[in-house]
Write a structure and sequence with these properties.
The chain is an alpha+beta fold and 143 residues long. 33% of the residues lie in helices and 16% in strands. The strands form two sheets. The chain has a three-stranded antiparallel β-sheet. A three-stranded mixed β-sheet has the order 5-4-6, with no helix packed on it. The structure holds zinc ion (3 copies).
Length: 143
């Protein structure tokens, strides 16, 4: 398949996989699609007052299980949830503006293979996110 950069529709993916399409799920999915920088659970609840807190959390869990959502730890803040394309990837998170990018760091994968002898056990998964000052956020005081 060629990489068609079409707008991915979260609910279509869920439907494809046999998940029930409910109104709160659609509302949460739409909001996530509008937030490429990600959103905290708290902010989701605030933006969708008609959807109960418990439903928001349950839905986030379901989206995570469905592998269409990434949970990102922010430095010192609440985790943010972000709709991500499918497939294994890592993230870079700007510590200044919060911009998130997906990256496929193949060298990270080979590094992990290379150090597998030093890892006490069989690695079955990993999460590596990088915290950066993105190119739009030059460090203060450099000039
Ligand atoms: Zn992601
Ligand atoms: Zn930035
Ligand atoms: Zn990886």
């Amino acid at each position: 398949m060629m990489a068609m950069k079409q707008r991915v529709n979260l609910m279509a993916i869920l439907g494809e996989r046999g998940y029930r399409v409910t109104v709160p799920r659609i509302m949460i999915a739409r909001l996530l699609e509008q937030k490429p920088e990600g959103i905290t659970a708290q902010a989701l609840c605030e933006e969708l007052p008609s959807v109960g807190r418990a439903t928001v959390f349950r839905t986030l869990k379901l989206f995570l299980e469905a592998d269409i959502l990434c949970k990102l730890d922010t430095m010192g803040g609440s985790p943010i949830y972000r709709f991500c394309e499918r497939g294994h990837h890592h993230h870079s998170v700007c510590t200044m503006c919060g911009a998130v990018e997906e990256l496929r760091a193949t060298k990270v994968e080979s590094l992990l293979r290379a150090i597998s002898d030093e890892i006490p056990g069989q690695v079955v998964g990993h999460r590596i996110d990088l915290y950066v000052d993105c190119k739009n956020c030059p460090r203060n005081g450099k000039d």
